[in-house]
Automatic annotation (TrEMBL):
Annotated keywords: DNA integration, DNA recombination, DNA-binding
PROSITE patterns: CB, TYR_RECOMBINASE
Record keyword Signal present: no
DNA-binding recorded as keyword: yes
Pfam annotation, one family: Phage_integrase
Residue ranges occupied by any Tyr recombinase domain in the UniProt entry: 106-285
Alphabetized PANTHER family for the sequence: PHAGE INTEGRASE-RELATED (PTHR30349), PROPHAGE INTEGRASE INTD-RELATED (PTHR30349:SF64)
Domain of life of the native organism: Bacteria
Residue ranges of domain Core-binding (CB) in the record: 8-89
Organism whose genome encodes this protein: Acidocella aquatica
Similarity field: Belongs to the 'phage' integrase family.
Protein name per Swiss-Prot or TrEMBL: Integrase
Amino acid sequence: MTKPVATPSSVDLRQRMIEDMDMRRFSRETRRNYLRDVGRFARFLGRSPDTATAEDIRQFQIAQHDAGMPVPTMNSIVSALRFLFTITLDRPDLARRLVRAKHPRNLPIVLSQNEVARLLDATTSLKHRAALSVAYGAGLRVAEVAALKVSDIDSERMLLRIERGKGGRYRNAMLSNDLLIMLRAWWKAGHQQGVMHKAGWLFPGQQVTKPISTRQLHRVVVEAARVAGITKHVGPHTLRHSFATHLLEDGTDVRVIQVLLGHTKLETTALYTKVATRMVRRVTSPLDKVMALMEAKAAPGP
């Protein structure tokens, strides 16, 4: 007798989605967020999401809008549900019903190089200083910093291997001489403390078998900023923003920065041109040239 083919309704939908995300090497944070957002939709339905209709999706998004859900949160839920319907349930017809809301992007908060120096100097341990130095010195996302392993340091090619970047993509990040020196100092100190192993995490958490959490790194940045007297609203991603902006101000081509950041779209990277203040200050206003001509004309002859 032929065995019946299992349908999504007859299996654990949550487990199927986890397996689909694992196959695509999604980060732990992305997996958690997608499961949370699909859970929101399931609670709205009051039944399994695999029974959803186009009208259910429409009513769900209307309810989100009417409840005053922030646009970024609404769009995050759209991403999670599109994955569920397109990949796990193979229902692209439903995924097309999801509407992504448009919203103006806020300009990123950027620290000056002096502020970055004060922030790093205000950290209370070599591990934390090294972790924040990686975030700034290589322009990594906080989840990418937390996921680094000792074996990801390629001192021969002066690169950091990012195995699970956004969307599960691989890329190489830059490794400067000063950053390598700091990481070697942390390796030596961590090895003496018994928390560093060649096959282990570069920044282990309280349990050495697990990496430092992104929440812990966020708390480290906030506390260091407070101690340093920095009043800007900062987090780990502020260091990534500052990395990109400072490179742009120093004349690095925006397309090179795009590769270093792992952006898929150039327009995402181009946002930093709006906050690169040193570039603005280097530009000579046409008014200055006009005033110089007027002064030269008004100057008495010999």
